[in-house]
Amino acid sequence: MSKIEQRTSTRKANRARAGQAAKEFFEGTQTINGVPGFREHGSKPGWWIYIGRIPFARCIVIPQGDSVEIHDVVVCKEGDRRQGHGTAMIADIRQAFPGAHIWVDTSDCARPFWQKMVARGHIDSIENDYSWPCFDTTCAICHPTRTTGRRRSA
Question: 20 to 30 A from 145, CA-CA: which of 54, 114, 151, 153?
């Protein structure tokens, strides 16, 4: 077998393994109002992990009566941010829970994104009206006076 044939064979095998891994990853997910990709949270009864936009984005969805909290929203890779993946995911959540009051708490640096989601009708409200710095100590928006990213000098 030539090197080209070996590479082609390896690529086909890798694609088959990746396809099988993706299939297994999505097994056990549920569809809510026509939106697939909800997996029950392993340790929080009634909570959902929304993985319908993996590999780009995921979040936790917490239904409580007539309201839904969206929590722990992540667009996974830095290079995929500002590409519409987060907006598409939040629009999916709205489609899955059309009559619910959807809300978030947000850190200072993410507030502009969530304000856009309110303006577009994807969510209903941002509940925290106070400053909430994120945990990233290098974030200049949330921590403008921390120039080194360190909490204390060494």
Answer: 114
What is the C-alpha to C-alpha distance for residues 65 and 8, in angstroms, rounded to an integer?
53
Looking up tokens 């060494």 gives 154
How far is 113 from 87, CA to CA, in rounded Å? Answer: 9
- Nearest one of 144, 81, 87, 134 to 115, comparing CA atoms: 87
The model carries a pTM of 0.72
Is there a domain that residue 154 lies in? no
- The CATH number covering residue 94 comes to 3.40.630
Least confidently predicted of 5-9, 12-16, 64-68: 12-16
CA dihedral 74, 75, 79, 80 (to 10 degrees): -170
Residue 29 has pLDDT above 90, yes or no: no
Residue matched to tokens 């987060």? 86
Residue 37 lies in a domain: yes
Omega within 30 of 0 (cis) for the link into 45 = no
Tokens standing for residue 96: 């899955």
Question: Which residues span the domain enclosing 7?
Answer: 3-126
